[in-house]
Specification:
- The chain contains three helices and four strands, in the order βαβαββα.
- The protein is an alpha+beta fold.
- The chain has one domain (about 1-75): Glutaredoxin (3-Layer(aba) Sandwich).
- Strands 2-1-3-4 form a four-stranded mixed beta sheet.
- It starts with a strand and ends with a helix.
- The mean pLDDT is about 95.
Length: about 80
Amino acid sequence: MKHFKVLGSGCKKCATTADLIADQAKALGVEVEIEKVTDMGAIMGYGVMSTPGVVVDEKVIHAGSVPTATVVQGWISA
Protein backbone atom coordinates (compact mmCIF):
# COMPACT_ATOMS: atom_id res chain seq x y z
CA MET A 1 0.00 0.00 0.00
CA LYS A 2 1.28 3.44 -0.91
CA HIS A 3 1.20 6.19 1.67
CA PHE A 4 0.44 9.66 0.30
CA LYS A 5 0.72 12.87 2.27
CA VAL A 6 -1.03 15.96 0.97
CA LEU A 7 0.69 19.03 2.37
CA GLY A 8 -1.28 22.24 2.75
CA SER A 9 -3.34 24.51 4.91
CA GLY A 10 -6.57 22.70 4.14
CA CYS A 11 -7.48 24.96 1.23
CA LYS A 12 -9.72 23.91 -1.64
CA LYS A 13 -6.75 22.96 -3.85
CA CYS A 14 -5.40 20.70 -1.10
CA ALA A 15 -8.75 19.00 -0.62
CA THR A 16 -9.12 18.59 -4.39
CA THR A 17 -5.67 16.98 -4.58
CA ALA A 18 -6.48 14.50 -1.78
CA ASP A 19 -9.84 13.65 -3.41
CA LEU A 20 -8.17 13.19 -6.80
CA ILE A 21 -5.65 10.73 -5.36
CA ALA A 22 -8.44 8.78 -3.64
CA ASP A 23 -10.62 8.74 -6.78
CA GLN A 24 -7.80 7.61 -9.07
CA ALA A 25 -6.69 4.90 -6.65
CA LYS A 26 -10.25 3.59 -6.47
CA ALA A 27 -10.56 3.63 -10.28
CA LEU A 28 -7.32 1.66 -10.56
CA GLY A 29 -8.32 -0.76 -7.80
CA VAL A 30 -5.30 0.15 -5.68
CA GLU A 31 -5.46 0.65 -1.94
CA VAL A 32 -3.74 3.82 -0.74
CA GLU A 33 -3.48 5.68 2.51
CA ILE A 34 -3.88 9.46 2.36
CA GLU A 35 -2.75 11.70 5.19
CA LYS A 36 -3.46 15.43 5.17
CA VAL A 37 -0.64 17.44 6.75
CA THR A 38 -1.64 20.96 7.75
CA ASP A 39 1.10 21.79 10.26
CA MET A 40 3.23 24.52 8.67
CA GLY A 41 6.36 23.36 10.50
CA ALA A 42 5.96 19.87 9.07
CA ILE A 43 5.28 21.25 5.58
CA MET A 44 8.37 23.45 5.74
CA GLY A 45 10.33 20.40 6.90
CA TYR A 46 9.70 18.89 3.48
CA GLY A 47 10.96 22.07 1.80
CA VAL A 48 7.58 22.78 0.21
CA MET A 49 7.07 26.51 -0.26
CA SER A 50 3.81 26.43 -2.22
CA THR A 51 0.94 24.07 -1.67
CA PRO A 52 -0.56 21.67 -2.30
CA GLY A 53 2.42 19.40 -1.96
CA VAL A 54 2.36 15.64 -2.38
CA VAL A 55 4.72 13.25 -0.63
CA VAL A 56 4.97 9.51 -1.39
CA ASP A 57 7.12 7.31 0.81
CA GLU A 58 8.65 10.44 2.41
CA LYS A 59 9.72 11.92 -0.95
CA VAL A 60 8.20 15.15 -2.28
CA ILE A 61 6.91 14.39 -5.77
CA HIS A 62 4.76 17.47 -6.47
CA ALA A 63 4.19 20.99 -5.18
CA GLY A 64 2.41 24.18 -6.09
CA SER A 65 -0.64 23.08 -8.05
CA VAL A 66 -3.38 20.50 -8.34
CA PRO A 67 -1.92 17.58 -10.31
CA THR A 68 -3.70 16.12 -13.33
CA ALA A 69 -5.47 12.77 -13.17
CA THR A 70 -2.87 11.30 -15.53
CA VAL A 71 -0.01 12.35 -13.26
CA VAL A 72 -1.77 10.89 -10.21
CA GLN A 73 -2.34 7.60 -12.04
CA GLY A 74 1.39 7.46 -12.72
CA TRP A 75 2.19 7.92 -9.03
CA ILE A 76 -0.24 5.19 -8.03
CA SER A 77 0.95 2.76 -10.69
CA ALA A 78 4.68 3.32 -10.05
